[in-house]
Amino acid sequence: MAPDLTKQVLTNTAETVLARRYYMKDAEGNPVETWETLCHRVANAIADVDKDSPNGENLREDFFNMIYRMDFLPNSPCLMNAGTDLGQLSACFVLPVEDSMDGIFTAIRNGALVHKTGGGTGYSFSRLRSKNASVRSTQGVASGPLSFAAVFDAATETIKQGGKRRGANMGVLRVDHPDIMDFITAKQDQNRFNNFNFSVAITDAFMKAVEDGTEYDLIEPSSKQVVRSLEAREVFEKIIDLAWHNGEPGVLFIDTANKANMTPQLGEFEATNPCGEQWLLPYESCNLGSINLANFVEKGKIDYDRLKTIVESATAFLDNVIDCNRFPIPEIEKMTLQTRKIGMGIMGLHDMLIQLGVPYGSEEGRETAGEVMRFIRDVAAAQSEKVAAVKGPFPAYDAKVNTYPARRNAALTSIQPTGTVSMIADCASGCEPYFSIVMVKNVMDGDRLIMVNKHFERIARAEGFYSDELMSKVADSGTVIGHKEIPAKWQEVFRTAQDIRPEDHIAMQGALQNNGVDSSISKTINLPNSASREEVKLSYITGYQLGCKGLTVYRDGSRDSQVLNTKDTS
Ligand code: UDP
Question: What's the complex ipTM?
Answer without folding.
Answer: 0.92
